[in-house]
Design a protein that fits this description.
Elements: H1 15-35, E1 51-59, H2 69-86, E2 89-91, E3 96-98, H3 99-103, E4 114-119, E5 122-127, H4 132-142, E6 148-151, E7 157-158, E8 183-185, E9 192-198, E10 202-209, E11 215-228, E12 234-246, E13 251-264
Parallel strand pairs: 7-13
Antiparallel strand pairs: 1-10, 2-9, 3-8, 4-5, 6-8, 9-10, 11-12, 12-13
Length: 273
Amino acid sequence: MNPAFSAMKPIRRSRMRLFFGKRYFTWKRYGIWLTNSRKRATRREPNALPELAFSHATPLLRRLRGVDMQLQHNKIVNLRLAAARLDGLMIRPGETFSYWRTIGKPSRRKGYADGMVLHYGSYRSGPGGGLCQLSNLIYWMTLHTPLTVTERHRHSYDVFPDEKRTQPFGSGATCSYNYLDLGIRNDTDQVYQLKIWLDETHLQGEWRCEQTQLYHYEVYESEHAISLQPWGGYVRSNKIRRKIWTRSGERAGDEAVAENHALMMYSPLLTNA
């Protein structure tokens, strides 16, 4: 990453530009889905595969400065609906998983509530809001497996200060139906299964497989920096990497995973109090 990275000042788009731009990319994605010949993962099985590849959990409720907690409670409704579409999904060798094609469009007609939707450095409410927590979880778990991430979009804005963060900055995957998708392909020789559920306090996830993985993975960040831009704003940057270890404890590799640059929407001197 270039330490002298410079971000252009954000351009305020008109409502008309945003309206037609979103529809253009939405229909473009529909076209890709119709013409894509790759084998898609669609089968779900209730019984869990025998081996746990990786698991993770994230809290359902998180107090965010200036955000109505009702949006957090509505998010739980949305997560339950989406989790029901994903739990037990089997990804066989050669198959690809699409986050949005599997979940479908979140709408009020389907029971989705108005949750928090990040929008150009701020937030607003909208049906299905909060589903980024689920895509973040799946992406983070996938980095600890040999599955291949074919599509992932970073967050362009860092909206809220860190508070009880347990993962590196930029280790998630933003989503917006349907053009900001999360895609995962199984290039291994065994079946992987995605397990997703909610308990009283956390969103829970697992990747399971048929046999014990040959390697385990340690995901970390490097080159974290906050830089003042010529136009007066701050940009937060880092690289996400992962170390690959054999079952006997020998390091088999250290590879780059992602590079992040996000416009900070708060002062970097703020505390989390």
